[in-house]
Amino acid sequence: MQICRRTVFALCLSLLGVATVWTFRPVSSGSTLVLYGAVGYAPEVVEAFMKQTGIPVTLINMSTGPLLARVSAEGHHADWSLVWFDGDAAATALDQSGLLAPHTVPALPWTKLGQALLPADGAYTPTGITLAGVFSVAKGRAAQKLDWSTLLTPAEEGKVGLANPQLSGPAYILLANLLALHGGWPQGQDYVRALQRNGMRLYPVNGNSELALQTGQIDLAVAQSSAAYALAKHNPAFAVVLPPRPAVLPSVIAVAANLSPRQRAAAEAFVRFVMTPKIQALRLASHATDAMYWPVTIGVAAPPNLPSLDNLPVTILNPASWGAREATVGAWFDRLTAQS
Amino acid sequence: MNVLARAARLRTLSGAPILLLFGLLFVYPLLRFLALPLFPSLGPLGAVGVAAQQSSLSAQAILNTLQLALITAAVSVPAGILFAFLLECRTWSGNRVLTATLWLIFVLPSYLIATGFQILLGAFPRGSLIQHLFFSAPGIVLLLALKGLPFCVLAARTGWRAIGGEIGDAARIHIHDAWRRRMLLLRLLLPTAGAGFVIVFVEVLQDFGIAATLGAQIHLPLIIYAIYKQLTSMPIDFTAAARLSWWLVLLAGLAVALHLMILLRYTSASIHGRQREVARPACHGAEALAATLGLAALVVLGLAVPVLTLLAEAALPLKGAFLPHGVLTSLGNSAAYAGIAATLAVGLAAGLTARAGRSGRLRHALDVITLGNMAVPGLVLGAAYVIAFNNEWAPLYGTPLLLVVGYVATHTPMLVRFLQPALGQLHINLADAGRVHGLGFPRRLRRIHIPLLTKPLLWGWCLAFSQILFELPVSELLYPAGRTPLGVQLLGLDQNLNYVTEARLAICGILVCLAAIGVAAWLAADDSGPAPQERP
């Protein structure tokens, strides 16, 4: 028994030694790509890419807000090779800070909307479209006429929820659209103030506002379309209502500016791979909520339960101007909501 | 005399490297971070999108935090005193179950308890009363009170033990009125209640798990989550985070000062040399019934609801693998982090405690630092590390090394407190006798110290391992790319409502934790190192 205990103790020490070596192994070799991803289907795409090309990819999955904060904290000492998240405004802000490599957009048969979303310097590639703010409600309200002014009515007091624009990247585009639709910046502040006065409730991410809707804490969630349609698909008790002129929210992928030529070539190969029809089909078939998106290239069909975007009036926000004022708008919104 | 003075000076100097290391881990990062409101230039270099004092201070978050901490402490203390009474003053068959339940609640991370409740209550009819009650401040108070109870019971047990049996006997002889006797007992319990109140108050201030799950879900602004928000949203505002941290540190510092004052004022009043062990009476009928009901409520709310809900959720069918590879890797990552950090922290704590035991000044410094740590939550230390070790001289941010160092720094003070009684009982003559007999330091360590300290060291390791495995705040801020820790993975799954995978991962984490504790307990039971026997 004594020897047995000593053996177990020695085994534990050996295990600790192995754990130490494993923990402090190099994060990536020269050829490894590091992808900071905030899209749910990224693991499946990464797996397919590694299988096809043999290029190793390390994926770090997080939601868009913390992802952008991490990229921002790392600054010019970036540990990432690629970022993939929702929101071209934030991508433009990163581009203006010199963190993104230019001219990485592959030549593809873009749709009209896709073409409109391409940046002039090719610093990021749109990989799909969602809408930044649609209404997620109980099925019984689906036939009601709901628009942005509905959110200010006494009946909705304390019953409207949305993701916090400071923690959820997509929610910033929603906030920007609310401001843009009601006079722009800073005139649109009045509408958001009125929303705040009517008891608007903020949640960390779309998932939390959906849970709040499902548990009766709120009656209407202003959510990203992918989350709202996924909820309606999985739970028939809920439906999606499209408000007037929702904002187009592209998911974008971008390459880091500080890569070696070899890594940059591998990163650009990943971007092209993401946009192939085969991989777009893989993304659309994913169980992730983010799979509910509208493609931006011709020849790829959107999921059957999404309405056509062809005749739908939408807002395309200028990513340069709204990206540049994200810090100002965010700080104003923080002050506004801190008073509640 | 000169020789003795020189020897004392040498001993003090030999402790300097350890204190220097401690200073580097605590004092430098914290001072730099907390000085940001006054000197914003001390902020991180080379970061993008960093805001400069644009965000406001959330008065609501401060008020909510204070209210929650006070209410939770007020709820926990009476329950803690009653459970401690059962453990210290009564012989009752449920005492073992009660002790085990309290330990398990202590080890179970608060965010998993919150998730268990969230899953269960999510299944209730939409808008039902129970949902309204849970998804609001009473729900948070319930969870925080459950997490605070083990600390409160620990403090209260010391109080009941100190009161002893003879005070009750004396009261029965000299005070005829039963109500006055009870009032006397309450007055004697006041310092214990105060200590328990302060401990729970500080724990509530610093609890990040519940603030990040249920608190964020019901949109209840709390200081700890407001700090996190400033550090993880774009633009990052380190200055606002530092300003909020000051509030947290000040509130906790005031509470700790109060705790110290209570200890200094009352401890000597209740412990005396003639104290004797009194046979503990069995619970009578009504007492036994109340105790059983209380224990049942504790087991159901603290363990059965979260654990059984997680088990039931984990058993639900899900397409694909039981756990996706990336998700499972987070468990491996955290097990490795926890193993390494717990070992380093136990080694550092034992070294510090042993060194401090030989010097009055060092011991005093250690007491100040470890008590000071009570006032500094892991989230604040993590934020301080982002700034202190994210520059050209110490480019450690985003590396596994900094995360492990963060874990060691946050757990060493707790381990110092844990090991102090055990190491204090080792008489200095044991080592001196070994030295006189020609034993070198390694042999003294192997033949004298380690055999006598195996149990406390291994239990300390278990404590640190279980806490680090599920650690959340430091992990959220410092985790390296591609090495996601378990806590971060679980919170991410929770926020995306991926409850089945979250439950499976949590159950696997609990199993790994129990396995590690089981092996350590088995090793600790080893009697291979007999204590030195006295010759007849």
CATH superfamily membership of the largest domain in chain A, which one?
Periplasmic binding protein-like II
Mean pLDDT across all amino acids of chain B: 81
Continuous helix count of chain A: 13
List low-pLDDT spans of chain A: none
User: Judging by the overall fold, what is the CATH architecture of the largest domain in chain A?
Assistant: 3-Layer(aba) Sandwich
Biggest sheet character of chain B: none
The share of residues in extended strands of chain B comes to under 5%
Q: In the residues of chain B, how many domains can be counted?
A: 2
Describe the structure.
The complex is a heterodimer of chains A (340) and B (536). Chain A is an alpha/beta fold and 340 residues long. Chain A folds into 2 domains: 23-131 and 248-311, D-Maltodextrin-Binding Protein, domain 2 (3-Layer(aba) Sandwich); 134-247 and 322-338, Periplasmic binding protein-like II (D-Maltodextrin-Binding Protein, domain 2), CATH 3.40.190. Helices cover 41% and strands 15% of the residues of chain A. Chain A is built from 13 helices and 10 strands. Chain A has helices at residues 2-23, 42-53, 64-74, 88-96, 112-116, 169-181, 189-197, 206-214, 225-234, 261-274, 277-284, 319-324, 326-338, and strands spanning 33-37, 57-61, 82-86, 124-131, 134-138, 160-163, 201-203, 220-223, 238-241, 248-255. In chain A, the strands form 2 sheets. Chain A has a 5-stranded mixed β-sheet. A 5-stranded mixed β-sheet of chain A has the order 7-6-8-5-9, with helices on one face. Chain B is mainly alpha-helical. In chain B, 76% of the residues lie in helices and 0% in strands. Chain B has 22 helices and no strands. Chain B is globular. The chains are: A alpha/beta (340), B mainly alpha (536).
